[in-house]
Amino acid sequence: YHNNLFCLAGIRLGPKEKLEIPVLFMPTEMKIYKTVVVIHVMRENGENWPYKVTAESNTDLNRNVTVAENGETEGILWIYPINGMPEAPQQKSVVICCQARQRLEQRVELLLIGVMPPATTVPDAGNSTMVDMDELSNTPEVTDGSPATLEFLYELQYQSDEIRSQLDSLVGIQLVEKEWDTESRIVTLIFNVVFAPSKPMRNEATIVIQCTAGGLWKFPLVFIATEPEVDDVINIEAVGLNKESIVGFKLTSQTR
Asked: Where is the CFAP47-like immunoglobulin-like domain (predicted)?
């Protein structure tokens, strides 16, 4: 969408009737887009509402009505700010494979294509346009001190609460390095991923990365834990045909 206002005149809306307003978003760059949908309602017969706006009236009310010359309310406004956050196409999965009861540290390089320079796309302060900020890390990942400093938010998201409960204590992720190529507008983020599975499994997660200048990237991760090594081999010698042979061994619980 564009920063333009389009007028849809002559729409008649009856009592309790609903009006759907389609909004089409076709971003061309990885930056934040802003626009406003304004709905202006007036009486069909052209009459005004008798309510008069005065200096003592509520500030929010004054902003959301249009006033006729005699001070009566001519129309009512509904104003909906819309913030568009472009999302990059789905990326290929990164496989993290580790044997159960072992610990793996793996460096993962993720390429963010089409990052806009911050000098031209820094959003207005105080008017946050972050997508799902509650789900993303609140820690801005700063910075190399260069003129082209960019900040990123990232988090590991799971497909269900069940998968989260299985992986949350087994997986760790930390951004350790960032490289910014101004010519190609590609940012390379290098993460250190730790995987310490306790049993064989195969689960999926997604690294969600958001640039504060605009843009959202998602990178699927596949966590595979293979069978652990055999703890020990138990040999039982027969003492004779049709006679029992017994051997004892201890099992230690890893939890309380």
From this structure: 87-226
H or E element at residue 61: helix 59-63
> Which pairs count as long-range contacts for 121-126, CB under 8 Å and 24+ apart, including other chains?
121/31, 121/32, 121/213, 121/214, 122/212, 122/213, 123/32, 123/212, 123/213, 123/214
Measured in degrees and rounded to the nearest 5, phi and psi for residue 199 equal -155, 165
Distance CA 76, CA 62 (A): 10
Predicted confidence (pLDDT) per residue in 30-59, tens digit: 888 999 888 888 888 888 887 776 666 666
* Domains defined along the chain, listed by start: 1-85 (no CATH), 94-117+150-226 (2.60.40.2310)
Q: CB-based contacts of 82: which residues, under 8 Å, 6+ apart?
A: 1, 23, 34, 35, 36, 37
Q: Is 242 left (phi over 0), alpha (psi -120 to 50) or beta?
A: left
